[in-house]
Amino acid sequence: MNLELARSRLAQAGVTFAPGLTASEVERAEQAYALVFPPDLRELLMFALPVSSGWPDWRITDDPRIRAQLRAPYEGICFDIEHDVFWPLDWGPKPKTLPEAFAVAKEKVEAAPTLIPIRGHRYLPSRPSIAGNPVFSVHQTDIIHYGADLWNYLENEFHGAFETPEYQLTQLLRHIDFWSALAS
């Protein structure tokens, strides 16, 4: 990823930056939030930390907003189980009570790669821990691919500054356990 170009284009789009995270700050954030940044996200965050509205400030290691963003995918699934009769067939028969259904959903989400908030309800999966994971837009169980990778996500989200079409997936999507099935 061309980090200088990304920062320049994002700045054109109104994103403000703080200095990039140090290696020790990355490690503290990963420990505090029980996640591992994939290499491409780690590289961006260490180059320049986006701190505009909606972007998590990973320097804050006990931020209730980040914790809420990390919980949001599970809570959205539970909301749709309760209100929209969401229940994937491959989860087996739906339990008779909501607490039992929520427990199954929690087990599924906890076994899946952690979704790391990038901005708002856009997430990058933590696994596999290699560059090039797709970015998901997650609102309850309305889950779509919003970028084939982190760069393509930035192009899609900030298409005016990147001078790219409004939305396009630029390559084949890597399959991500659990989340890709929900996005299909």
Q: Which blocks of ≥5 consecutive residues have pLDDT under 50?
A: none
Sheet bearing the most strands, described? 4 strands, antiparallel
Kindly, what is the distance between the CA atoms of the first and last residues, rounded to a whole number of angstroms?
A: 27 Å
Helix content: 40-55%
Overall residue-averaged pLDDT value = 95
CATH architecture: 3-Layer(aba) Sandwich
* Spatial extent as radius of gyration: 17 Å
Number of domains: 1
Notable characteristics:
4-stranded antiparallel beta sheet; 8 helices; 6 strands; SMI1/KNR4-like; alpha+beta; 184 residues
List the helices and strands and how they pair.
Layout: H1 3-12, E1 17-19, H2 23-33, H3 39-47, E2 48-50, H4 64-83, H5 98-111, E3 115-119, E4 122-125, E5 135-139, E6 142-147, H6 150-157, H7 159-162, H8 179-183
Antiparallel strand pairs: 1-2, 3-4, 4-5, 5-6
Helix pairs in contact: 4-5
Your description of this structure?
It is globular and about 55 Å long. It has helices at residues 3-12, 23-33, 39-47, 64-83, 98-111, 150-157, 159-162, 179-183; strands at 17-19, 48-50, 115-119, 122-125, 135-139, 142-147. It has 184 residues and is of the alpha+beta class. Helix 4 (64-83) crosses helix 5 (98-111). The protein has one domain (3-54, 62-183): SMI1/KNR4-like. A hairpin with a 2-residue loop joins strand 5 (135-139) and strand 6 (142-147).
